[in-house]
């Protein structure tokens, strides 16, 4: 009998946290996936739909200079703000708010393909206000992936990751707005280390884990060389 029909592995047995045996399923997310940071690979071990173990790897850029720029955000204001809008759009799509996601992508496109700053700045202000006032979004993202100062220090995360998924979504939009206005975004420019991601998603169901990853505001890394992070 084929133990991997269609190339999809079957679940195997494993002990649940309650001491009962449950099926384990190994699932790979990325490096190419809708609403997912390009180049990131997350290998998950699932019990039911809960992530019980995970490890990350990057399909890293071949050009070290390009890789450093992507990691550390050495971009002009337009590209920096466009990346934040693109990441916010992915998170909004995963959260199920398609209209807000479409607005974020239109702002991104205007930043990348027009010379106008005033139009995107006004649209971004309206989007930030709409997202901030949404009680539905506050309820649906409430207390998902919370991180306090102790969590940040222990995992080596930047201060921009403080709070829950909703807080980090608002932070993306705020950082985009600051750069459009010619201001330095609040918080350090360093990015989330990918080896911190497995610890952030363990214990959450798969859909919630995707929201958490989307909230980390990661820049894409692309190429054909894979670098692992256990």
Question: Which helices and strands occur, and which strands form pairs?
Answer:
Layout: E1 12-15, E2 21-29, E3 40-47, E4 50-60, H1 64-72, H2 77-95, H3 98-113, H4 118-133, H5 135-140, H6 149-155, H7 165-180, H8 197-201, H9 206-214, E5 225-229
Antiparallel strand pairs: 1-2, 2-3, 3-4, 4-5
Helix pairs in contact: 2-3, 2-7, 2-9, 3-4, 4-7
Account of the protein in words:
The protein is α+β, with helices and mostly antiparallel strands and 230 residues long. The chain has a single domain (23-229), classed as Cytochrome-c3 Hydrogenase, chain B (Orthogonal Bundle). The protein is built from nine helices and five strands; from the N terminus they run ββββαααααααααβ. Strands 1-2-3-4-5 form a five-stranded antiparallel β-sheet. The chain is globular. 35% of the residues are buried.
Task: Give a quick rundown of the structure.
This protein has a single domain (23-229), classed as Orthogonal Bundle (Cytochrome-c3 Hydrogenase, chain B). It contains nine helices and five strands.
Task: Give short descriptive properties of this protein.
single chain; 230 residues; disordered N terminus; Cytochrome-c3 Hydrogenase, chain B; alpha+beta; 16% strand; 5 strands
| Class computed from helices, strands and strand pairing | alpha+beta
- What is the domain total for the residues? 1
**Cross-sheet strand order for the largest sheet:** 1-2-3-4-5
Quaternary structure annotation: single chain
Contiguous low-pLDDT stretches (5 residues minimum) are 1-12, 63-74, 222-226
Overall 3D shape:
globular
The biggest sheet amounts to: 5 strands, antiparallel
> What is the helical fraction, as a range of percent?
40-55%
Instruction: Report strand %.
Output: 15-25%
Q: Do you know the CATH topology?
A: Cytochrome-c3 Hydrogenase, chain B
């Amino acid at each position: 009998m084929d133990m991997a029909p269609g190339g999809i592995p079957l679940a195997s047995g494993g002990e649940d946290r309650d001491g009962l045996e449950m099926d384990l399923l190994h699932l790979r997310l990325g490096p190419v996936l809708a609403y997912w940071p390009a180049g990131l690979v997350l290998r998950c071990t699932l019990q039911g739909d809960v992530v019980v173990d995970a490890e990350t790897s990057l399909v890293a850029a071949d050009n070290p200079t390009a890789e450093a720029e992507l990691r550390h955000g050495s971009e002009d204001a337009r590209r920096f703000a466009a990346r934040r809008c693109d990441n916010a759009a992915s998170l909004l799509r995963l959260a199920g708010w398609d209209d807000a996601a479409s607005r974020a992508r239109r702002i991104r496109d205007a930043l990348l393909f027009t010379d106008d700053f005033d139009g995107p700045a006004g649209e971004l202000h309206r989007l930030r206000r709409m997202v901030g006032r949404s009680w539905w979004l506050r309820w649906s993202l409430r207390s998902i992936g919370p991180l306090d100062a102790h969590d940040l220090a222990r995992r080596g995360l930047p201060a921009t990751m403080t709070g829950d998924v909703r807080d980090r979504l608002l932070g993306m939009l705020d950082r985009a707005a600051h750069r459009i206005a010619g201001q330095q975004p609040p918080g350090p420019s360093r990015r989330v280390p990918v080896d911190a991601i497995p610890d952030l998603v363990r214990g959450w169901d798969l859909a919630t884990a995707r929201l958490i990853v989307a909230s980390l505001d990661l820049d894409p890394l692309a190429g054909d060389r894979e670098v692992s992070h256990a």
